[in-house]
Amino acid sequence: MGAHAEHDMGHTVAGWTGTAVVTLGFAVAGAAFVAGSGPGLWAGAALILLGAVAAWTLHLAGRGKATGPRPPELRHWRTPDPAGRHGHPDCLGCRLAGRRTARAAVPAPAGAAAHAAAHAPAGAAAPAPGTSARV
To answer: Rounded to whole angstroms, how far apart are CA atoms 96 and 107?
Structure first.
């Protein structure tokens, strides 16, 4: 697996749409600045804001991706993210939309389950593997 296999930054419908609209907004604002046009600057600023909102909306609709590389079968830019509508852990956009997602469970240390089972009161059920005995 080379460096190319791990590269998966923003190749989504949300990423491409947001980038295209924001780039157009910067071009309009730049041309308006050179021409000395106040309304053109406002139009460029509106396009920049529209691009950000469009990318966020598409991300929340499942057309974006979580942080980090995706599995190879989901890397085509038009492939929807199956978990996108439920929210991504540690995603600012998902948190701003009110989607609270649990972080991935941290595995217990190797001997924790055996230690908890050995020290459990008589008749108590042993915890499931990979979970903590603490309540």
So the answer is: 28
